[in-house]
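Researcher: We're teaching a course module on how sequence relates to structure. For the next exercise, students receive a sequence and then see the predicted structure as tokens, so they can try to spot secondary structure elements on their own. Here is the exercise chain.
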Amino acid sequence: MANLAVTYSMQPPPFVQKAAMARYVVHSTNWSVISTISRSFNGIPYGNVESSSDGPINNSSGIPYYYISPLDFALKDTKKHSQVTATMSLSQTGYCFSKHYDPEDPRCARVTVIGNLTKVTNSKELQFSQYALFSRHPIMKLWPKDHHFAFYKIKITKVILLDFFGGANILSPKAYFAAKP
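Model: And here is the predicted structure for the students to work with:
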């Protein structure tokens, strides 16, 4: 069965609306690279592709959710250092290609969220995270039970956005969560 992830198709907000752009990128993308301080590789930073969702297409929470197995390096690494970064780019969506932007072009917006990777334990949030991920990544429902996948989120402490020339912008979680994608 193919991954039938849904692509968010609205146009991004103007680049001057930094928090809205950051929320748009997080909501529009279906995966991110989570970087950790590696336990397996003697403290060398390690990036790992993880499927993600901040909510179903019609309901953006701004919180990146993940479905991760304890076999995954990301979880092994966060036992010692729970801080992670997760990077997402509009190059995933086709938007940048349609504009003839290289993925490294600053106009091909990208976001890095910084925070702690934590297991989702609240029953209401657990239900939301499951729906958020399975609505975009339905194949996850069929992943092996003996791999003990569980739902995780990043508790965001900083958001870094690059969406135009002139350098990145650092956003507070308050500004980020106040914006609509």
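Model: If you want an answer key for the exercise: The beta strands are 31-37, 45-51, 65-68, 83-89, 110-119, 150-162, 169-171. The chain has a mean pLDDT of 94.
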